[in-house]
Amino acid sequence: MSKKIEYGKLIVIVAPSGTGKSTMIKRLKLDFPSLVESVSFTTRPMRSGEVHGESYFFIGREEFLEKKEADEFLEWAEVHGNFYGTSKLFVEQSLHEGKHLLFDLDVQGTDSIKQYFGEKANVIFISPPSVEELEKRLRNRGTENTKVINLRLMNAHKELLRKNDFDFLIYNDDIEHAYKRLTEITAKILAD
Ligand code: ADP
Ligand code: 5GP
After folding, report:
1. To which CATH superfamily is domain 10-191 assigned?
2. What is the CA(96)–ligand 2 centre distance, in A?
3. What is the Cα–Cα distance from 58 to 63, expressed in whole angstroms?
């Protein structure tokens, strides 16, 4: 981006895979219709139930690398063996239109967004109650094979080391309790 844009609020949700981030984001978008989610590009295979253009834009590695070369990503990262990237054009246009943006990113992407937008980016880290519970949730979700689950769990240990580095921390033990806290934080960010 050529210059920093000062409209709209930015909320970044970051959590180890399987914590409950997508579950909470889905509800949050219904309760806060003014929030617009930044739909990322990814090379990860589509899960059953996911929708191209809603969950992600699912593209091949070659196309992803072409976009990267063309500088189309505000940030991108390799996460659990796949590429993920945020559309620069979408963020730029949405902020110009005064929209509040919601991002679902890993810690690398979160660091990039924070570096770019500084205090304007409000980062909420969601932590599972324990790694054991995280493993249960990943296995019960049933969307990844054992090898991928193990990779995600290994990465979770590293991501959890960063849990105190951001603006807000929520433990997703009881979903209703955690979600209520998320709505309180979101309402405060949007009102400030
Ligand atoms: P993420 O998007 O962080 O990878 P999901 O939202 O897909 O995680 O949640 C992973 C699994 O855990 C899903 O099956 C979801 O229904 C379940 N889940 C989410 N929050 C809780 C919770 N507080 N207690 C038990 N299960 C949960
Ligand atoms: P999943 O494959 O479970 O949907 O996502 C895996 C991880 O990639 C999650 O931590 C998610 O937040 C992260 N992620 C999703 N989109 C992006 C993105 O555009 N950039 C970055 N850096 N991470 C992303």
Report:
1. P-loop containing nucleotide triphosphate hydrolases (3.40.50.300)
2. 24
3. 10
